[in-house]
Amino acid sequence: xxxxxxxxxxxxxxxxxxxxxxxxxxxxxxxxxxxxxxxxxxxxxxxxxxxxxxxxxxxxxxxxxxxxxxxxxxxxxxxxxxxxxxxxxxxxxxxxxxxxxxxxxxxxxxxxxxxxxxxxxxxxxxxxxxxxxxxxxxxxxxxxxxxxxxxxxxxxxxxxxxxxxxxxxxxxxxxxxxxxxxxxxxxxxxxxxxxxxxxxxxxxxxxxxxxxxxxxxxxxxxxxxxxxxxxxxxxxxxxxxxxxxxxxxxxxxxxxxxxxxxxxxxxxxxxxxxxxxxxxxxxxxxxxxxxxxxxxxxxxxxxxxxxxxxxxxxxxxxxxxxxxxxxxxxxxxxxxxxxxxxxxxxxxxxxxxxxxxxxxxxxxxxxxxxxxxxxxxxxxxxxxxxxxxxxxxxxxxxxxxxxxxxxxxxxxxxxxxxxxxxxxxxxxxxxxxxxxxxxxxxxxxxxxxxxxxxxxxxxxxxxxxxxxxxxxxxxxxxxxxxxxxxxxxxxxxxxxxxxxxxxxxxxxxxxxxxxxxxxxxxxxxxxxxxxxxxxxxxxxxxxxxxxxxxxxxxxxxxxxxxxxxxxxxxxxxxxxxxxxxxxxxxxxxxxxxxxxxxxxxxxxxxxxxxxxxxxxxxxxxxxxxxxxxxxxxxxxxxxxxxxxxxxxxxxxxxxxxxxxxxxxxxxxxxxxxxxxxxxxxxxxxxxxxxxxxxxxxxxxxxxxxxxxxxxxxxxxxxxxxxx
Length: 723
Fold this sequence. Notes:
The protein is α+β, with helices and mostly antiparallel strands. Helix content is about 45%, strand content about 15%.
């Protein structure tokens, strides 16, 4: 069974009717291929991706006009241009051999026989209608979309050259342009073949996503294990994954422990430990352990489907620079047609018609905005797939473009800079008992409790591999803590209220430490016997180790940092000081966070807001750049322009670096794509003809193709850059 038919569109869940008729399916590689049902692309075999319809009848959620939705590569592929190039190349050889250019340059005269004079006409006609048809059809689409451009110029150039040469031949003239026409079409096909290979290569990471799922899965049903195809998997199925196998569906670990390679999905380079209850992503690779996975998501709901959809929508969206290049390409087309007309009229007055047509064709070809049309989209395509490989998804290209100008990054504290869960921060002995022993005793009591504080203490003891004692006569003390018999002693673990009940007091030094920790917003839990305080444990929302590195990296990039939280002033101040954050806002309610964004923007600062994408939606929308962090398997966050798949604030710096690299490549390509025309167009028009300097149409096509290849290669260098 072919992998490509398996992406994420399985069962009957892919019926567009389920989504109210607002969903269509399009190929990420060939956006012109659209279907109302899921399936495979007829061009490349890639799984069609569900996307929202445009109001104009397109397939993306962006509000763009029909002309803006026009795809200049509609119907194009590597195979088409390769086949047409080789046929045209083979036919061009005899056309050149029977032309005057062969005699002039090579002193070669082809064998003559009855009708041989019609060989250039016959073979050039085949080249024109077979090889050149792709340009003529595309030109028709451009004109129908009211966006004349590259294909219009090429079609105009080859059509003028062909019909002029046919007329000359039947009228008995000798100045036909058949060899120029044949070589021009052949070189243009070669240039487009190379371009399409570059475009296909740029999106190879996206294409690989459609091949991640296995063909079959082992499912436990009715007390036995069955091997079924992915299309037969249902929610609630229990899937068995052997060591080294690919995860067939999104779900939750029901049984087993293993390390899972999630690099292709989240960008996490290290294997991620998975145990009972942990979420797991389809397409990732199981490690050495066996897992039983309860399937929770199929079809469009899966993480992989969401990634494919977002990346495809990003490919179809446009940045400001791309809009600029589109306008420039349009105006360059108008300039080229006008210049071609002036060139024709001028040389008709000064020289013969063949020379005049030759000059006009050269102008039309050299001015083709081919490189300009490729300069931005190819860089954008590469950056989108590069982002996906590094653990963040670009929903809007303008969001990535905005990242390079960010002055300050505003982080939501809980769940972003911190883990959003309690953890042991420090242990304060109040007697000669060691810190580890205090933790062990407390955990021995709390192991019977389900309270979040108790769980944090027990988890810390487990992390340190402490051996816990059995707890006898465990009792909860409402609102205060718990007690149990540990190693023959009655141990109490709970709040400060337990001290007052037993008339126990802390010494001055211990009291000072605890007061200091309390002022930082930390929760203090006391461990004591009926007559003695053993020690205290301070718990706090755990600061991510990655947060320190993230803040430091941003500072090194010259970017300020700020934090917003609903916690108290003391807690906010403590976290900000620990992470060296420049500014913080405390006691801020969720609906007030957008006001803090406006406050920073009022200082003429470009603000990136980093939050969880749910409570922070207004702030994410208000910010110049909205980044949803910790999206996990939920990739349908509407308020953010960029989504981080994993809970790692270090990826913010990656976004900024990628933005700067992407912008740099776009500017380089724009400069090259437009700059060479300043010199090339006058030369093609023949301004230096009196000095013997001229560009023949075929040479002009060569230069145009070379400029396109240079732009493509420069864009491809972005793939090697590390962020």
